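Teaching note: in complex prediction, the entire set of molecules is handled at once rather than each chain in isolation. The prompt given to students was simply: 'Predict the structure of this complex.' The entities are:
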Amino acid sequence: MVDALLGSAVQLLTPEGERVEHPDFDITLTDAELRSLYRDMVLVRRLDAEATALQRQGEIGLWASSLGQEAAQVGSAHSLRSSDYAFPTYRDHGVSWCRGVQPMEILAMFRGITNGGWDPIARRCSLYTIVIGNQVLHAAGYAMGVQLDGADEAVIVYFGDGATDEGDVNEAFVLGADYQLPLVYFCENNQWAISSPRDRFNRAPLYQRAAGFGFPGVRVDGNDILAVMAVTRMALDRARSGGGPTLVEAFTYRMGAHTTSDDPTRYRHAEDLEIWRLRDPIERLKVYLARNGMADRSYFDQVDHEAADLAVLVRDGVRAMAAPAPETMFDHVYVDPTAELVAQRAGLIAYEESFAEGLTA
Amino acid sequence: MTELTIAKALNAGLRRAMEHDSRVVLMGEDIGRLGGVFRITDGLQKDFGEHRVIDSPLAESAIVGAAVGLAMRGYRPVVEIQFDGFVYPAFDQIVSQVAKTLRRSEGAVRMPVVIRIPYGGGIGAVEHHSESPEAYFVHTAGLRVLTPSDPGAAYRTIQQAIACDDPVVYLEPKRRYWDKGEVDLAADVRSGDPWCSRLLREGTDVTVACYGPMVRTCLEAASAADVSVEVIDLQSLSPLDLDPVAASVERTGHLVVVHEASKTGGLGAEVAARITERCFYSLEAPVLRVTGYDVPYPASRLEEHFLPDLDRVLDAVDRSLAW
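The expected output is the structure of the full assembly:
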């Protein structure tokens, strides 16, 4: 069934790690580039595993796992130039990682100490947007700005298969087509919108929607990082050269739960997971690297050591992240605080201090 | 001084803002070639080009969502929602994104977005064209809410809203679009402060606080009253500037708040609560409210019974004094 669905998808590396040809897409990467793709995927997976464990230990409130989607995220983000701008979802830790967002910056929101975590302008990577699909319109507006500036930049926006039900996503398709925006719509079809399977609300393949809006749509094997890069690069080049938007549907699978609050055993079968475990994006690239002499045992060991170091950094870092002072909730509500907020802030501080005085008296 | 309608004053203010700052872009449905259904943007696309006066798809969430992205890119988008009742598809973007992005980014990303909305009734329109949604926006932290009541205020405050680095919901009293008044087109008003109430008529017996389309109604009521009525235009609904109202109530001891929007949970309730907190010992009567009723906006043949008018304002003034 998976193979039938993937029939139309661009693939350059089979699940067994065999390099194959595609009539329209190809990519040439150096051994060092290929190794860095592997390294990023391994590190992001370790970050994800540690975060899941930290949630189980009560150290973070929630985690949306990226497990299984590393090739789609890392491959597409590696296709960006530093001057391009990315709008990720809350599951795109591989994207934010590749944009230089630090692990503690990613985890701060899930730790519950901020609703953001990083400077989106400095990272050229917007903050995670929790309302499904909202960010797709932001990306369209940002791309309008790029177009007005006449800048040689592209914008990529991420969303899931579930988000394609949202009006905002479809309205953003209209904007992209209407203004021929320098924008790549990157849909990670991970097959599940919490408990709703992909085909429940999508009678036609998602990538085919693009045709109705008047721009190209491409389905790519989302667990094949080479194909993801080849297709995303094409779409980004097209965007930068004034060719307009492209919808990329990365066909992948959410190997974990929707979030740590979810229990997927209530709605999906274990055998489905087994099918997709055999299509794992990291194993696939590892086999390819090893078989073709592009990386050896010592390299893989070195990456594993780095992952272990990252795990320690994540565990220690999260535990050390303390909540900010309560009155900071009044910061940045407005550029300059209103008189009412100044008064409310002072009221909170005085109220909290009244207990401290009571204790010392 | 030049005599202009509110509609023309807004047009002149938008033009001035666009001349001053090339990052100001306008976006909305039918605002380009048509000049908007109320002609507020008339002629601006011809003079500034399609890239700065952008005809949008018929999609309100897209208009506001795109404005968020434009603001992230450093632009100062001024978007038009065609009618009050059509802002709700964009409500999610306004509440979840426009209002919260500065806070979420801890100050890194400003949202200098102006969302212009013609609002209020009194024009005999079909359903969804006569609503007063201001309380939703006032209740949302991170937004500022302005509503002008005359051409001079319209010319000033639209420019000040555009110059503001916070998002502003700018509510235009549509039935007053054609009211005329004096406008000082020569004045450079951008740096002025619109976040204040305006004492428009002095009086000694009763204070009437109002805003937007009700300001003219209340001024007419004050002229017709046989007692002395002080009229204050709130103008800035968020943040509220109640210092002039409190100072007035300390003199008159009576306050009536007037708005078209429904009563429960409306601005009148907030003004009443705050003035009661501040002026408890000055008040000689409870703060009274003259508002629309707690019903969906009625069909147009009934709207004159729904909308506060001169007589209902005077009735409340009398009731307050007789308390």
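Point out the following to students. The two ends of chain B are 44 Å apart (CA to CA). The interface with chain A takes residues 25, 51, 54, 57, 59, 61-62, 64-75, 77, 89, 92-93, 96-97, 100, 102-110, 141-142, 144, 165-166, 195, 239-240 of chain B (CB under 8 Å).
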